[in-house]
Amino acid sequence: ALQRGVKNEEFSLYLQPQFTRDGAICSAESLIRWLPPGKDPVSPGAFIPIAESTGLIVQLGEWVLKKACQYQVELKSLHLPESFSIGVNISARQLVEEDFIDKVNQILLQTGADPEHLKFELTETCLVQDIDRAKYILGRLRKMGLRIELDDFGTGYSSLNSINNFPLTALKLDRSLINGIEKKDSKKAIVNAALAMSRAMSLSSIAEGVETVGQVEFLTRAGCDMFQGYYFAKPMPFQEFTNFINQ
Ligand code: C2E
Ligand code: CA
Ligand code: CA
What we know:
By secondary structure, the chain is α/β, with parallel strands linked by helices.
């Protein structure tokens, strides 16, 4: 079904806005949705792992990047900050493709998107699979002007070494750290430490899964740079996103 879905383009790329500490919109994360006709939507948590294990993610990831670049170009006509950027999730499988950089360049050329306003979200698990390769690819992307965010920071087996090893521009604190932070001193300590680390290494910080005013207040005091979550807005289709901006 996923194969057919890719062939028939049964996907939609949603956008979820991200905000600075002052409440200004600064960027958006693109999130894929599978909408098989006549059936219930399938969550990416269910089909991305299948796309990864079958290799379909390469084709799908290309579609995502192209769409995200098209959005970036279209959004230039709206009243957004000059630095507004779009985030794209990249899977490990895409990174090891021989022609990954060529594909990125090709899509940038085709769409006329600006690499300076594009950020790739990569997880630590993805980066450590082939450290030398990941370092090389990230270096090339940075030279092209893209920004790199370390996604899901604080989950899985994170080795703090990654922050040192790779040319990153931001740390993205995972939702699991943010969830319940108002009540848990241990989470507060971890988040404070992560934010101190990102400052010391001149990285930006962004919190995902921000759902309550209490979380916003804590994160603001702790010096987190950017926020994303249901408290502000859910991921939405492109048209809805443009309405959201216009309002
Ligand atoms: P992720 O990269 O960690 O994305 C954040 C997830 O948190 C998204 O789930 C988003 O909808 C959800 N979220 C955002 N704000 C909140 C909040 O306040 N509360 C809660 N409970 N959830 C929130 P989604 O869209 O279901 O995506 C799940 C995962 O699928 C993503 O996790 C990412 O790993 C993967 N994914 C999504 N789109 C793509 C894509 O285009 N390419 C690749 N390779 N992976 C993708
Ligand atoms: Ca992400
Ligand atoms: Ca996450």
